[in-house]
Amino acid sequence: MTAKAKRDSTARARELGAELRRIRQRSGLSGHDLARTLGWSPSKVSRMESGQRGASEVDVAVYLVSCGLVVRSELNRLVTLAREADSRYWLRPHSRELPEELRSLILQEGTANAITSYDPLIVPGLLQTEQYIRELFRWGSNRPPEDIELRVDARLARQHVLKRARSPWCKFFLHERALRAVVGGPEVMHEQLVSLLLVDSWPRCSIRVVPDAAGPYGIVGGAFKVMGYAEHPPVTYVDSWAAGLFLEEPEDVAMYREILARLDRDALDAGQSREWLAWLASEYDQMEAGRHDHPRARRADLAQEQPQQRQQR
Q1: Average pLDDT over the chain, rounded to whole?
Q2: What beta strand segments (E) does 6-155 contain?
Q3: CA nearest 55: which of 30, 19, 31, 26?
Q4: What percent of the chain has pLDDT above 90?
Q5: Where are the domains of the chain?
Q6: Distance CA 10, CA 124 (A)
Q7: Which of 90-94, 134-138, 199-203, 303-307 holds the top average pLDDT?
Q8: At what angle do helices 42-50 and 11-27 cross, to 10 degrees?
Q9: 47-51, 144-148, 180-184, 297-301: range with lowest mean pLDDT
Q10: Alpha carbon of 83 to those of 33, 56, 57, 70, 249: distances in Å?
């Protein structure tokens, strides 16, 4: 692939391409069938679907109608995506509709060959256990139980990227505070720490602990990840409560890579991190075993009870 083709591809263009391909396949048309219908070359359809070039709004509209898409809201969404496909700064609001909320991040993670992330407050989504996920969603929203379970299943499915053949090379920097923050109680946290130790043993995954003593990492900035690709420039993803931000400008990505370099220098090394995770897992296990006597366990119980009491008022 030429350098120009790489520059022409953005996260937004690749998402548009994936959506076009999904809609075409749903219609039962092959790429050659669609090209013949539209009088296009098969390579034009292929380029649009791979996100190698910014497709015009007219081309996207014609493509979609030819595949039988007539829902105005979907047409408008995808045509707007085509209009903005060249932008390397993409604020993606979180939608109440689960597929819409996750589509962009799943695509970028699923096509990456390397993911390096930093999480100062909670365990990253790719590493969360089922019960940890469930407790987070229960705490963070007033959604009905069936909606929470749908989101739990979706996040667990997202983790398959780490288990597939030729999974991406992953390095996770986790701040000490994220691991000490009790989510769901000591039993949930013990299971989560044991799971982190298991993932750290996988050949393509590494977990590094950033101690409090390393500096103000836990209070300056937020969670982010830098994703690398074999055929595209890297993408930085910064998450917040309301939206996810995709950054692709080289200077923006370079800034986050500089932060990762500092984290690599200041975090515990791989062996020390494993020892620390094992120690904290043992601490949570002891807290659960002596739940009524352990002062940290009592604080965890109180932290769990207070939100429940507020909800009952």
Answers
A1: 85
A2: 89-93, 114-119
A3: 19
A4: 57
A5: 3-83, 89-312
A6: 24
A7: 199-203
A8: 120
A9: 297-301
A10: 26, 7, 6, 19, 18
What is the end-to-end Cα distance of the chain in Å, rounded?
A: 61
- Is 214 a residue whose pLDDT tops 70? yes
How large a percentage of the chain has pLDDT more than 70?
A: 83
Q: Determine the topology of domain 89-312 in CATH.
A: Endonuclease; Chain A (3.30.870)
**pLDDT at site 4:** 46
Q: How far is CA 192 from CA 152, 229, 259, in A?
A: 15, 29, 26
Q: How many CB atoms lie within 10 A of CB 311?
A: 8
User: Residue 170: beta bridge partners?
Assistant: 115, 205
Write the burial class of residue 112 (CB in 10 Å: 0-12 exposed, 13-18 middle, 19+ buried). buried
Secondary structure letter of residue 181 according to DSSP:
S
**In this structure, are residues 236 and 253 in contact, taking their beta carbons and an 8 Å threshold?**
yes
Identify the band that residue 313 occupies on the pLDDT scale cut at 50, 70 and 90.
very low
- In CATH, 3-83 is 3.40.309.10: no
Closest by CA to 89, choosing from 248, 199, 205, is: 248
Q: Which residues contact 61 (CB under 8 A, 6 or more apart)?
A: 75, 79
d(CA 138, CA 112): 30
The side-by-side arrangement of strands in the sheet containing 205-210 is: 89-93, 243-247, 235-239, 224-228, 114-119, 169-175, 205-210
99 or 247, greater pLDDT: 247
